[in-house]
Every structure is written in C-alpha cells, then in structure tokens.
## 1
Amino acid sequence: MVSLPIPKFLKTLFDSFPLLTYPANPLPSRCPKFGTAPSLYVFTTPEDAVSGNPSFNPSCLKWQAYLKFNGIEFKTVPSNNHASPTGALPFMISQQKSVSESTEMTVIPSNKLTAWIEKHGYSLEEADMDSARAKAFLALVNAQLRDAWLYALYLEPNNSQDLAGVLYCGSSVSAVSSFLLRQAKAGARQQLLQAHPGGVLDPREIYASAGDALEAISTILGRDTWFFGGRDPGLFDASVFAYTHLILTLRWHSKENALLRAVMRHDNLLGHEKRIRDKFFPEAKTPDPDHRLEG
Amino acid sequence: MLELHIWGPSFTLPSISPQSLSAIAYLKLTQPPTAWTLIPSSNPLLSPSRELPALRDGTIWVPGFRGIIEYLRHKNGRALDDVLGREERADALAFGTYIESVGGRLLDLSMYLTDENFDVLRGAFAKLLPVPARYYVPGVLRREARRRSDGLIPASSVSATDPTTPLPLPSAMTAAALPATREKILAKATAERIKQTAIAANFLQAIQTRLGKGEYFFGDKPSSLDCLAVGYLSLGLYAELPNGWLREEMLTQHGQLCTYVNGVRGHMLGDGVDVVAVMSGQATVTTSSGQVVDGGLPWGIVEPQYVPQVTRFLLNRAMEMVGITSTGRDGSVRGEEEQTQEKKEHEKGMKSLQRWETAKNMAVVVGCIGTFIGYCVWNGLITMELGGRGKDKVAGGVTGGIGGRDDDGEKDAENEMELLEGFGSAEAILGLGDEVNKAFVRGVNEEEREGKGGFNQKSSESLA
C-alpha cells in the first residue's frame, strides 16, 4: 500500500491538537467495593447486614450459619433473587489475589458453596453428610418442614400480608408490592403442589406432617449437642437451625402459628437453636417469650 | 368394606404409580383380604383431594399413602409401625420421605421424562383408561412430573425440546449437517445418561446401606418403610421400558436391593397381574387353565364414568387457568380433632377470607366477560346479527310463495327463540338483569308475530 504524504498544513494543524488518552474514570461511589472478605448475598435488611444478623430466608440462613461454623470471615449484603446469576439467593462473591497480583473475582452459587467452603474453611470434625441417614433426614427437612414453612408464610392470609409482604415484597409503590406478593404466593403454591398433585392443600395435613418431621428430627438429636453425634455443628445443623430460628423469631399471627407451637414442643430443638444462636449469632434477635405465650 | 382406588395395573404389577403400589402393600399386610377391595379406577377426580391412591370407607375419602396409614391407625387402633422404637420410627419417616421425594423423581425421570419410555407408558395408560381420558391423562401426568423434577435435573433431559442448543431446522438438515447433528445428540444422550445414573446410584446406595443384610428394613417384620421401598423400587425394577437406565443400574450395581424386592414382592404386592383381565372385571374368575390372574389381590370392578370425568377435568382446567383453586376444602377426614371456640372462629375468618378471594377472582372474570359483551354491543357486532336475521325474514317473505316453506320459517324462529333463551340464561348467571332478557324475548316474539303476519299476507297475495 502506498502511503500518502500528509500535506504540510494538515500536519501542523494535527500537531497543535495532539490526540490525548485520558485515564479511566473512577467507578461511581455507590458501586460495591469488594474487600478481601468474601460477600454473601442474602435476603436481609440493611441494618441486619451490617451487624451480621441472621437472614430471614431459611436457605440463606442455612449457608450463613454454615459459613460461620467453618470460621470463614465474610460480610452479608442485602439482595434479592433478581441479582443472582442463578435466579436464587444466596450466592457469594469472593475476591482473591492470585499470583500475578491481578485480582480475580469468582461468583459462587449456593450449590457450589459446599465445595468452596471445604477448600477455604477449617477442617471441622462434623458428621459425615454423605451417610445415608444424613441424606434421608435432609430430605425430611427439605420436603415436609419446607412445605409447612411455605404454607405458613405465604398462604396463611394474615401471615402473608404482615410477614411475607413486608419481608419480601416491600416496595414504595403499593400496587407493585401487592403484585409482587401475588407472584410470591403463586410461586409458593406451585412449590407446594409438587407434593400435592391434586391441587388441594389441606393445612392440617401439611402442619401435621411437619410436626411428625420435627418429632423425628428431635428424636435423632436426642441429648446430643449436634446432630449425628458430630463434635462440631455441620450442614444438617445449619439446615435445622435455619428453620427453627426463623420459626421461633418471626412474629406469626397469633392464630396462624401452628408451626411455632410444633417447634415449641421439642425442648432439645429449642436448646439446639439457642446453642447456635449464642455461639455464632450473639447479636441476633432472641425469641420473644411473651409473644410465644400468645399462642 | 374398604375400597382402595388406585391407578390401574401394568408391567405385571398391580399399579402403574409408586404411591398406589405402596398403599396396596400396606393394605395387603394389615387388612384381611375380605375387608377391602382394590379398584383400578385410574381417576384421581373421584376423591375430594383429587389424588390417587385414595381409600374410601363409606362416605369418607382418605387420600395419599400417609393419610391412609393414619386413617387405618384410627380405625383399627393399631398400625404396622407400632412395634418400632422411637428412633426406628424417626428413621422410617425420614427414609420414607427420602424415597418419596428422590425415588419419586427418579421414577418420573425414567418413566415420564425419557421420551422413548413415555411412548411405552402412553400405551400402558391406554389399557387403563376409557377413550377420552387416555389421550389427555398421560400428558397431564407428564406435566406434573416435569414440575416435580425441576430441582433435580436440568432442563436438558427433555432432550429434543431444549431451547438452549436448538437443533438445525429440518430444511437445513443437508447431508453434510446430518452426521454432526447425530453426533451432537449422541453426545448429549451420553452426558444425560451419566448424570441420570449418578443420581440413581446415589439414591440406591443410600437405601441399600439402610437395608443392610436384613430381610426387611427393621428386623424380620415389615414396616411402612418397606411398603414405600417396595412400591418405588418394584416399579423401577419390573417396568420394562426401552431406555432402561434405572433398571440396569439396579440390576448391575445394586443386586442386594433386587434380591430384597424379589423376595418380598410375593406377599406385599401379589404375583403377576394380568392387566386385561383385571380391567375387564374378570380377575376374580379363575381361568380354565387354573392360572390365577388376580395376583392374590381382591380386585373390584370399575364403574365407568366417562361424561362426569371429562366434564370435571375440563372444569378443573378452566378453574386453574382463572386462578381459582381449592384449599383444604375437605374437612371430613379427621373430624374427631378437638375444636376450641377460638379455632372455629379463626377458621370461619379464614373461610371468609378465602371466599372473598374467590369472589374477587370471579368478579374479575365476570367483569372481563361483561366488558367484552359490552364492547361487542357498542361496536355493533350483535346488532349486525339482528340485522342479519331481518334479512332472513325478508328472504323468507320473498320466497314464501312456495308451499312448505312456511313450516321452515316457523322452525327457524323457534330455533332462534331457543338460542336466545340460552343466551338469556347465561346472562342471568352473569348477573345481568332479567328485564333485559324479557324485553329481548318479547321483542323477538313481536317480530316473529309481525313476520308471520307479513308472511301470511304475502303468501295470500301471491296466491291471489
């Protein structure tokens, strides 16, 4: 290719206006800053996020508690499902300094958290989660206890207005929040219908099976400190704590608190909840005894 | 007499659904054969909870495996699990739930969500169901299975309909593109199979560990956990499906479980069942060759209910679409629960709230239909029809000269009257005034009379 000579006058013109590359603009100040501590994105209030208090969502609280069991330093960030790459909370963003000094950010969804924790946490002497029993009892928590939780929170009319509506569907525009609540209720109903293909949900049956599940869980805990005789709390302890703690601390409507009464029946589960709360969430809300008596 | 309604038999097993099989096993173990009959009705809409299996005792319907156990415990004063200790009972519940949730999803995956197996399953359902139902029920069940298994498997197991990696369109399938596509499908099938097998192995291993070397899960006596295990595992083992990954996994890797199922099948589920004989009500008759076809189960006869079944199905679908769903409407099951005043009041409050919800939904629907009709009237769609009829009348008048046409005209008018009345009753349901309707009909009557008058005149004129 033949290069065209630039005319003299153009060259002088360009020389007087040199091409300048400015340095990149700094990120806006509202941008999240990733420190060295990984951040766990959970459903929580901004105040609770600062003090590291328990999330109000069972699956978030489960991982929050399990991370604390493993002695991992992290901070919680209030978020919602729309922020998550998988569409469900919690997820974690951790930043690590790699060898080449360039920082590397990894997003860990909840189903990969176990592996991540294994790599970064202390090695605990917890019960073996691969054992057949642990799997079976985890199914009990994830099926029957979860169903009853969903029913109590979203489908009991008063609870859904006063608890689910406020916790999950808070929006300054009332039309938006009522629409969100409607969506959340439909989602919860869909989940419940998986176990009830007929489409008929009988609250007594749902609560009764949750009661049976709690009875069974309480039986296997027995007088042990942690489940399955582990020396440290494990993932199953976190799963149970996530439900019992929230069931005990949420302000259920006094006539729709069947789940609370079912938990109150088992002293060893109450003790288990208190042990974890005292040790790992010292600033958490304590269950309110006056409120309990109302039921 | 207890009636156990179930999904009908197939694959030589007395039922095609694992829950039904478990319920059969439980009743066979606890009830004397004269006390119950097995009815392969295959119609979940019979029971108020719209689930099968369901136990009918007189007017009381009890749905589901656990519901049935609970009911029989109340009725007989004892249950199969009474001999178990506290910890064993906790184990029975936990493992039972594990089998129901994970095992159930595995069966869903194997039977409903593997395409070639679903085709076979559709054939099996065709033997159980009457003509209209056999076309839509398998689809409904498949949809349910997909809804249940969304947490366990990625969408890719629904192989051909995966939206993320679209297959080339048939028009683009040139000879060169074909092998590549086939390879892609093959690779995907292999990946799928590995994933499925991993899930299955995980599940079966846990169950086998719990079972150990014993004859039953808890010592030498069967329990409710055995019923569930037999129900779910036997369907995995005996269902002969073209893509039998679950069966292969059981046979090759978990022989101990197969031995267990083979061993207890005889007295928990009966021996082989002849599907055709059972469905035609011939199961209780011993065939001339002396072969028992009922498999040792007290089969009953299904009362055919085609029209109500289809109507209820359609009604349910319509209600589902509109968003009206029933919640705990059946309160008859455990009536003996003590009810304090407070509880009753609360329930009343709940009911009124639910009623309010339903009323709101109904109001929205009625409002929409009303708006649509209003729009039609305003837009002239309905007046156009009235105009059309006027034209008919004139046409009748013109051709009225020919004899015998008279009758037809009258008949038409009658038909129209009926139509309008139908429309009127629909309006009454929608809550529109009766006056409108009456005025409408009156108007039509007058028109008709006029028309007839004109008609007669015309015909007499033409005669003259």
## 2
Amino acid sequence: MSELTINPGVELRNSRLEIHHFRVRLAVASAFVLCMFALLFARFFYLQVIQHDYYTTLAEANRISIVPIPPSRGIIVDRNGVLLANNYAAYTLEITPRKVEDVEALIDELATVVEITARDRRRFRKLIDESKSFESLPIRTRLSDEEIARFAAHRYRFPGVEMNARLFRQYPQAELFSHVVGHIGRINPHEIEQLESKGVDANYRGTDYIGKVGLEQSYETQLHGTTGVEEVEVDAAGRAVRTLSRSAPVSGNNLVLNLDAKLQEVVYRAFGEFRGALVAIDPTTGGVVAFVSKPGFDPNFFVDGIDPQNWKELNESIDRPMVNRALAGTYPPGSTFKPYMALAALTYGKRRAEQAISDPGGYNFGGHFFRDDKVGGHGMVNMYKSIVVSCDTYYYMLANDLGIDNISTFMKQFGFGSRTGIDITGESAGILPSQEWKTKRFKQKWYAGETISVGIGQGYNSYTPLQLAQAIAAIANDGVMFRPHIVDYVEDVATRARTVVEPQPLRTIPLNPEHLKVVKDALVGVNKEGTGARAFAGTPYVSAGKTGTAQVIAIKQGEKYVESRVAERHRDHALFIAYAPADKPKLALAVLVENAGFGARAAAPIARQVFDYWLLGKQPTPVKPDNSEAGRD
Amino acid sequence: MIRRITRLLTAHIDSQLLILLLSLMSVGLVTIFSGSNQSVPRISSQVANIFVALGVMYIFANVPPHYLRRIALPLYVLGVLLLVCVALFGDIVNGARRWLYVGVTRIQPSELMKIAVPLMLAWYFDRYEATLKLKNYLVAAVLLVLPIGLIVRQPDLGTALLISAAGAYVLFLAGLSWRIMLGLGLAAAACMPFVWGMMHDYQRQRILTLIDPTQDPLGAGYHTIQSTIAVGSGGLAGKGWLQGTQTHLDFIPERTTDFIFAVFSEEFGLLGNVLLLGLFLLVIGRGMVITANAPTLFTRLLGGAITLTFFTYAFVNMGMVSGILPVVGVPLPLVSYGGTSLVTICLGLGILMSIATHKKLVQS
C-alpha cells in the first residue's frame, strides 16, 4: 500500500479546486470554533463581571456560617439566695430525624449503648410530632460519664446522632415552687409566631427553650439574655474550619424574689395532707413572701418535654395539681368578707361601732329565713362582737342596709373582683357582684334578697386567695396598697445593677383612721377571744385575723350542714386572713384549705405556724385537725 | 555532529504545537496543585502521566501518516468487536456497562473509538476519493452509527456525543452537501422526542438540571451550581492562586479532573480565562494550518477531525463548568489530571505533528 506516493492520480485529483473546497469547509469550521469560543467568553464575562457580586455573595454564603451562641438564662433565687431555678451543663444525645431512615430501629440500636427508657421513647415521639424534621431532638439528656465514653466509642455506628454539651434548667426545689417559678419548655410553633410578631425571633436562634408559665414566662425577656453570633468558615460538609468573628452572648438577668424558700416549705408542711393555697405578703411593700398552691408538681418533668403518660397523670388527677389555686382558683370569701363589710358600714354611716343589734338566730327577708351559724343567735351584737364571734345576722341586716352597689363600690377599692396585676400571668379576676355585673352576666336584674348572702361573703362572691391576701394587707397597711409582686429586683449578671420591680405604692384607699381602728381592734379580738383564739393561744406577739368558711355545695333551706354526711370533696373550704404583729404588721396572709371544714379549725393553725416562723423563727408542726365544735365562725 | 543528531531526533516535532501544549500542561500542574490542596503526590503522578503522554506523542509524530492509514480498518474492526464484547460480557460500574475485562486488566473500548472512528472515516473517504457519491456518505454514516449505537447502549452519552462529533467533522470536511446536512439537521430535530423517550432517567435529569439547576440544588444540580458560583465569584482577576474558597472548602467536586476549570477560573478570574481560551485557540489554529496544508485527503480529514475534536473537548468542558452545557464526563484537554485523556490527546497531537512534518518529505 503506497498509494500516497505512487498513485499517479493523486496529484491530478488534488486539484486546486478540491483543495479550495476543503479550505472553505475548514474556514467554516474555524468560524464555528471562533463563534463557540466567543460564546464561552460572553458567558465568562457575564458570570465574572456582570454577575460577579451575586456570585460573590453566594460563595460567601457557602463559606460563612452564622452560628448563634445562645446566652445562659438568668437564675432565680429567693430572698436569701436559695436557688429556685438554675442551669447546669450536661451532655445530651440528639437525633436529627431527617438524617435517619428508620428512627425506631436507630433508637433500638442506641439502646444497646446507652440506657433509653420507655419514658424517653414516649417523650421523643412527642417531640418528633411537635417539631420540624431538620432540628436535632434529644433522645437522652444528662448522660453519665460512662455513657458519654461508651457512645463516643460507638459513634461511627450512628450517623445522624450527635452528642452535645448543653445547659439545662433545673428546679432544685421541685414541687415547692412549681406554681410560682413555673418552668421552661421547648419552643412550640405558636410561640415562634409570637416571637416573630414581636420581632425578637432572631434573638432566639439557637435557643430551644422558653418560659412557659410562672416567673419563667412573665420575666422571659429579662431571663433570656441576648444571643451572641459567631461567624465560622465552613467547608462543604459543614465542618467549621476557622472562626472569622465572634460577638459574645449577654447572659440573662437574675431574678431575686421576695419569696422565702424556708417559709414556703413551712407552709407546705403545715398544710399536711390538705389541698389549698396560701399567699403571704409584706404589707409595707407588697412583696409576696410565700406563695403556695398545693398540690404542686415537679417542673423538672417539663424541661425536656413531658412524656404523654406523666402528662396524663398530672392532667387527670382528681387533686388537679396543675391548677394554680392561689392565682386562678376563685372561692367565696365567707366570713373573711365581714371586716370589709364593717368598714363599709362605718364609711357609709350605716352603723356606728357601738350600735348593737339583736340576733335572734337569723334574719327574715322577703319570706326567706337567713340562718345564723349559731342556733338561737348571739344575743346583742355590736360591731366588735359581730367580727369576733362572726355573727351572720348582723351582716345580713347590714348588707340590706348598704345595698349591693355600695358594697360593690367599696369592695372594689380593696381589689376584690379585679386582677391584682401580680408579676405572673394566668390570674383570675374573680367576681365582685353588682347590679351592673349581673345585668351583663345573666341579663337579669338584681334581687334585693341576693344582697343578703353577699353580706356574709357567700352568694356570687368569688375571689382568689391572692386577692384576699392583697385586701388584708391593705387593711394592715392602713389603706396604702401595693401591687403584689413576687420578684424583688432584677439583677444584671455582669454589672450587678439592680432594678427594683415595684418601688411605689399602687394607691391609698381613703379610709377614716378611726373606722379602721374599730375594725383592726376587732380583728385582734378574733385571735384573742374569738374564733381564732384557740389557734393563736399563747403567742408572744399580737396578731389580727378573721376566719371564714366557704360553702362548696348549697345547704337546702332548713337543713343543717353535717360534715360527716357530706362527701369529702363537697365539704366546706376553710379560710383565714390575718396579719401580725397587730401594731406594726410585717406579714399579711390569706390561707385557703380545701374541703377542710371550718376556717378556725384547719386554716388558722396554718397561719399561726407561718407567723411563728416568720416572727419567731419557730419550725412548724403539721396541722392536726381539731374536731371540736369550738371556734366556729 | 550533535546538531545533526538533534535535528534528526526533532525533525518530526512541531515546535509551535509543543510549546503550546507544554504551556497548557503547566497551567494544568499549577491548577492541580491548588485543586488537590497542594498534594505533591498528585503533581508527581501527573508529571509521570505527562512524560508517558509526551512519549506517545513523540512516537506518533514519527510514524508517517500512511502507516496510520494501514491500521485504520483493523483498528476500527477491533474496536467494534470489543464494543460488542462489552455489550455481551462487560462489567457494570456505576450502572453502566463500559468496561471489558481482558486477562489482567480492564479496558474501556469506547476510548479507543475516539481515535479509531475518525481514522476509519478518513481512510474510507480517502479510498473512494475519486468516485465519491451519495452512497459513500451513506456507508460512512453506517460506519459512524454502528459504534455510536453500541456506546449509547452502555450507556455513555458523553463519549457517544464526542465520537459523533468527530465523525460529523469528517463527513463535513469530506464535502457532504449543505442540502443533506440541512436535511439531517431537521431530521435530528424531529427525532428529539424519540431520543428523549429512549434516554435513561439520569440522562434526562442532567438535561433538566441544565435548564434549571436550582430545582435540585443538593442533588443533580449541585455540581453545576457550585462550579458556576466558583467561576462567577472569581471576578476579573480571580481570588489568587491557592485562595479559591469554593475550591479549598470542598464545594467544587472533581476539582482536579472534570471540574478543574472551575478551580482555575475562581483563582485566576476572567483574565486567566482569556489566557486559557487564547492558548486553546492557538492550538486549534495551529491544527487548522497543518490541516489546510496537509498533502492528502486522508491527512486533511484526519488532521481536521483531531483539531476539531480537541476544540470540542475544550468547549464542552468549559461550557459544562460554566453552566451552559449539561454535565458530561469530559476532561479539559491537557489541563485535567489523569493519564488516559492526556495520552489520547497527545496521541492526536502527535498525529498532527506527523502530518505537519511528513508532508515536506513527501513533496520533496
């Protein structure tokens, strides 16, 4: 084969024309090449000059990851520095469900390395339902050192599972402060919306928890702090390569409360087996020194998200531990209403202190006989005696003379039927009955007969223990009222600067000092020689008080209330309001004991223990119910 | 004496082409160094590849073109047979049947066809040069379609397209009438729906991804999006050698092979790109000059096919990295890391040198 050199036709056929044709084709191909390269150049020019800024932004977004550094939440301490809510660092095991195909199988596998209880599983399932799939969710918290080591050794087996050091909220006092301090919990979608609408959602990047109830909720903005930001250079796998810049987080502020943890415990123990509520206020400042709603619950359950079973138990318990009785429970004040009625009578000139009425054992009004507590009546009763022995007939008559609107106008000044504005949310307003209220509520007119029961704190009357405490504090402090507040001051962690929560009185009720003295003397009389005398026998200090009983079910006309015949949950609630020392009150309180019968018997001894502790430093003994009929109100 | 020996040894080396290809290889080494996070083993391995490739080039530059003409037919037949064997007994790697196990090693016969097909077509047209008729073009078309069909079936769309391009260049340069080309173009357009129907899912995905890469930013579109960001963020002068963030934080995949242009473009910017386009254009230009002056139809067609295939590699690769062409596995000629492509390209350039230097001997 040597056509190339030998074939004589080659030269002939390779005529100029053919070469010309070929070169035209080659020129066309060259033009095509140039066009395509021009296209490439145009593309490069477009990307690198025209769109350069855009792609630089994208490259920076790739490279730089903004990592939020959540601040540490402020702690909560009582007036003596006892920790009520604090933080501690611990390791958690977290699963990112999006990165895992079969979460259940993964958990089974994990359970071979660290302990995972049925409760952990239930809780985790609930978390998955409530959260977005790209979040990492804790399957286990508070890993032990041994578990940390074991997981670290087996980490390669569990893609999508991470071990993280995190700060945890802890409530060392558990049940004792559950209704005041409240608790935090994982942020839910509704709360995210709220944060967004307030424009503070950016500050919550990196934060998983938010205050749900109690002080944790109402002081959320103070406690949370300011989230810091770290700019990190990351590679394509998301691994941090180096830190570019960092702005440190600012820790949340600490709360220092008026509450006294020891007093709180005294109250809790004094209640014994009973349910109920107690609010004790320093009348000269409005600072809440004790705030108890019993039973409580362990708020630590809620921090990582409560598991459905425990939630069900708490929620469905007949004792209703989730209800904040002191704040949201409303009860008829019973006879504790009488001192205010007496003050109203003096103020409106309807009675003079020494003016006595005859008590035949009841009061007939409009064909209805309103029974007195004592069969046969108390005889001649003046104002002092009416309070000391708690005479119903005196107040039936008085109520009729005052009329509902005078009662309602007067009582409103003490805060009855209005929210006190205490610094935790969820407060009930209660009911201060009036003609206007009844028209609005039932679209019915007020009947004069209804006023009669209001006079002894029954009827439509319904107030929270907190309102009762605030009212008695107002009496104790001679009408100068404070907004009750649990937090004394907010403390900046860095500067130690204090912001006092409630430095100014709310208002002063215009009361005649002479009128006030009459009532206050009578209140002292209650504990000296009246219904509270037995509970307060032998105190080295002088105290003032008033017992009360709130009916849970109505007693039929002509029927007598016999405790042993009434189902336990239908028994009367015992009430007691008090302050001490009488001349210069340091503490005013209201106590409610559910289904405990007469106020003198169950509630007054609790109050006594509180004062003994607060004024004398005495440790309490549990309440022993006193079965005698003496000291009924 | 020494000068005569030197002249004898370098008689068949085209110095212009050599300088250009050495320049491109240097660009490659500089960029591989950056793209591999300054891996010295990578560089030494590529230097070894370069020596092998230059050796192959030297050999082919010294082989007179008529020897190539002699092996055209056997090489083509062998290639087709191997492709048939692949279809029957080939190993499946990554879902495609491309490899054939022969005794000790695996080979990819489609690589061989990149040279064998243009060689075969050039030989065929040269053989029937005197009596070229429509029938000859039809036969040539069959010679082209047979291996392409086998390669498409593997499936390896990228290689099939490159070989089609090489074959089409030969047909075009051989003088296929404009009217028929127009007709074929229209026919191809009409076939598009059927081709779409025959494509594999991942192939369709690549084309859909090209149209809108943001549809699947972490999946199929990821390569294109990240390489486009790298190119765009490079700007006019680039971020500087070893300074590319997309490169050094692992956002660009295949940084030393198929996507090496993204690294280059990010670090050297538009100015670097213009330089690179210029180098490629000079190689192609030199190839065109050699082709235009080639003595026979065979060498003209072969030279033209090699030059235009070289262009196609460069264009497809840069087009793919800058997001105007779908992602196909085509390396950037002479720049990308990897022995196979380097040897294939240098073999082609060696043939070009051979055409350039043997012409004079024939004419004299």
